[in-house]
Amino acid sequence: MKKLIMLAALIAMAVPTFAAETWTNVPIVDTSCAAKAKANPDAHTRACALQCEKGGYGIVTSDGTYLKFDAAGNAKASAALKQSKQTDHLRVTVTGERDGDNLKVSSLKM
Fold this sequence. Notes:
Blueprint: H1 2-14, E1 20-30, H2 34-37, H3 46-51, E2 57-60, E3 66-69, H4 71-83, E4 91-99, E5 102-109
Parallel strand pairs: 3-5
Antiparallel strand pairs: 1-2, 1-4, 2-3, 4-5
């Protein structure tokens, strides 16, 4: 019985778990412009983001990493951008599960 409990504990430690994280007041950028927008993401415009909507969206983290949204995140971002009156300095608060450089978005607020 002890061996079974030890084995279960080892398996539980080996299985990766993804916990939701929140990024507050971070720049949102379309994927097409992510590389050039990293230098100054606040200069990226809403018009460009909406024009490049097909490529999807993501955020630029404080360390300069671009986290690309999943399909649900892209839909939330598109809706938020369409409702926004901001022309540039596009900032969001996003909660989701990070998997490498991808982000499974559970909530997004502009």
